[in-house]
């Protein structure tokens, strides 16, 4: 059973998300928070698999709450919900450690699939949309640090190819097809890449690729 904490300052939004999740045989809403401060506290208490996080809330916003939840080192993963597909706040949330984001007007099946993906350790943002976000806010990329440069140097040539492909918007199937690899091999490469660059998931791997200059905004 996947446990979910719902965080939103709008009661109707919380109710709608709760009804949708409770209708799934493999999900349950374990709590509701109305702001970021409550979200941090309840995440520590309830340890949900997924925190469904609104961004714009009074008091502590979803970005700071996401940062604190991720930095706590717990197992809970954050799925951010935003109103606009190129919302600067959503980008900041990804940088804070969120595992992806969805639009609030996503279809119910998309939201459910997103929660399942995040709970399983995947990112729910398509690489193409991630690239679109980074392109929109590329002037804010800080440039690579010495630590990032060392981690990039640890990658093999093939791992760099796979990381570049991820950041370029290719799915695992497309990477396997274009690089003439088995899809299981691609997944193994991605697992090693995430470990070597110290990334939580595919989203952070894409951001790492841009930060280090491996891929440039177009």
UniProtKB/TrEMBL annotation:
Keyword presence, Transcription: yes
Record's signal peptide: none
Response regulatory domain span: 3-119
Highest taxon in the source lineage: Bacteria
4-aspartylphosphate modified-residue sites: 54
Keywords in alphabetical order: DNA-binding, Phosphoprotein, Transcription, Transcription regulation
SMART domains referenced in this protein's UniProt entry, alphabetically: HTH_LUXR, REC
Transcription regulation recorded as keyword: yes
Domain HTH luxR-type: 148-213
Family matches, as PANTHER family: TRANSCRIPTIONAL REGULATORY PROTEIN NARL-RELATED, TWO-COMPONENT RESPONSE REGULATOR
Protein name in UniProt: Response regulator
Organism whose genome encodes this protein: Streptomyces lutosisoli
């Amino acid at each position: 059973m996947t446990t979910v904490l719902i965080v939103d300052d709008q009661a109707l939004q919380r109710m709608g998300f709760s009804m949708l999740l409770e209708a799934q045989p493999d999900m349950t809403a374990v709590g509701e928070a109305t702001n970021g401060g409550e979200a941090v506290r309840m995440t520590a208490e309830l340890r949900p698999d997924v925190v469904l996080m609104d961004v714009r809330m009074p008091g502590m916003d979803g970005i700071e709450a996401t940062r604190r939840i991720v930095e706590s080192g717990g197992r809970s993963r954050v799925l951010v919900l935003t109103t606009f597909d190129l919302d600067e706040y959503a980008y900041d949330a990804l940088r804070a450690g969120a595992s992806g984001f969805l639009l609030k007007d996503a279809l119910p099946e998309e939201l459910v699939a997103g929660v399942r993906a995040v709970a399983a350790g995947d990112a729910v943002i398509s690489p193409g949309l991630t690239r679109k976000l980074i392109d929109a806010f590329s002037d804010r990329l800080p440039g690579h640090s010495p630590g990032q440069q060392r981690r990039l140097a640890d990658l093999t040539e093939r791992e760099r190819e796979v990381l570049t492909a991820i950041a370029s918007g290719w799915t695992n199937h497309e990477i396997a097809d274009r690089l003439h690899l088995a899809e299981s091999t691609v997944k193994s490469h991605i697992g090693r890449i995430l470990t070597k660059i110290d990334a939580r998931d595919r989203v952070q791997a894409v951001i790492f690729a841009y930060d280090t200059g491996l891929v440039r905004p177009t």
